[in-house]
Amino acid sequence: MEFVISSIKTSTATVSRVHPEIIILRYDEEFDEESIETVKENLKAIFNLGRKGTCSCLIIPSKSALPDLEGRRMIEQELVHMPYVAVVLNGLAQKILMNFVARVIGRTKMRIFTDEIEGMNWLLEKIESTS
């Protein structure tokens, strides 16, 4: 379990700062479709907790959540500003979509995991190696 420094509850997720350089975006389990409005709301919460471009992010979507096309484009545009992004996925459709996003923003900056602890450890290693 991570130590939460500060957090913001949005309509679809909880956004928490758990490290000076790491934010966790954890979607609610019952949430299944992400619109441009919810993407904007969650990105705003991320950037309110950590200055844009300074915090890495661990994203934990609900098991079936997929953004609409407009939301995906905004995610691609904004994730590129983060030093590193780890995404914890289990569903095939989510993995296919996020593999595409990873190609867009760069595979050295983003990795997909099936385990939350592995994703967090990767972020910590990346942050420590650049300090």
Give a structural overview.
Helices cover 41% and strands 26% of the residues. It is an alpha/beta fold. The chain has one domain (6-125): STAS domain (Transcription Regulator spoIIAA), CATH 3.30.750.24. A hairpin with a 3-residue loop joins strand 1 (6-9) and strand 2 (13-19). The longest helix is centred in the C-terminal third of the chain and has 15 residues, at 116-130. The two termini are 24 Å apart. The model has no long low-confidence stretch (mean pLDDT 82).
Summarize this structure as a short list of keywords or feature phrases:
Transcription Regulator spoIIAA; alpha/beta; 8 strands; single chain; 26% strand; 131 residues; two-stranded parallel ribbon; six-stranded mixed β-sheet
What is this structure's SSE topology?
Elements: E1 6-9, E2 13-19, E3 22-27, E4 33-34, H1 36-49, E5 56-60, E6 66-67, H2 69-79, E7 85-88, H3 92-105, E8 110-113, H4 116-130
Parallel strand pairs: 3-5, 4-6, 5-7, 7-8
Antiparallel strand pairs: 1-2, 2-3
